[in-house]
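Exam revision sheet. Question 4 asks you to relate a sequence to its structure. Input first:
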Amino acid sequence: MDHTHHSSDPAVADLRGGFTSTRFVLVEPSHPGNVGAAARALKTMGFSRLVLVSPRVANVQSDPEAIAMASGADDVLACAHVVPTLADALSGVHWSVALTARQREYGPPQWTPRAAASLARDEALHGEIALVFGNERTGLSNEDVERCSALAHIPANPAYSSLNLAQAVQVLAYELRMNYLTSGEEANVHTHVTASTSAGRAPHAPGAAPAGSAAEPAGPRAASDEIESMFAHLESALVALEFLDPANPKKLMSRLRRLFARSGLEREEVNIVRGIAKHILLKTSRTDDGGR
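Answer key, structure tokens:
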């Protein structure tokens, strides 16, 4: 029984709501059995929102193998939402973590599953979040990875590090459940704990003020689609400035994505960056036209 259900603390209630505001996204899953097993992994940990991005098998929710592997989680499987792109899967999400099978030189900050779950717990207080898993054979593309706010990497046996898709979902779902359920205890003792006692925990979410900070309250977080529009606008402005050469972009936009991913972008901040990009484009177009 989940004892946190008896708490009247508003923050704890918000985290309980995290079980319904957390999406598990499978990008182009190949095998119906893995989809069914992932649904089972979600349900055993108290989650229910499964999103499938362009699954290889059409109507995979009704596939016999998927239903068999769901093993009682037929409701989660039947309610799985199917979308054509990861952008659609992340619509309305303000923070997401992608599971990656390897270390990446570029991309968002990378965490262990436990640290990522701690970050997810903090972000769940602000709205919709998502955990993103790649295809069984090829994983996630660089483009998909860069669309997410953070990365998680399961430190498996280096000699045999291949996890089944549903097993990976189970690991992340378990860590997230443990963070959601222990948040009640932490909320109840929060006012009696000094800053030094939290040194062993995973870091706060990027951009979050430390406990007891006098900083002004954070504004609403920007959603994934708003952030993607910001990057497109900013890239156009940098090309217009000739700071970014589209024929030889190197890793500029990847580095900028990493920079912004660490900041925990608020909606107002995204609007500021877009305002800067807009004025850069206006100025450069006047210069091109011979104006002043």
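Marking note for examiners. The radius of gyration is 21 Å.
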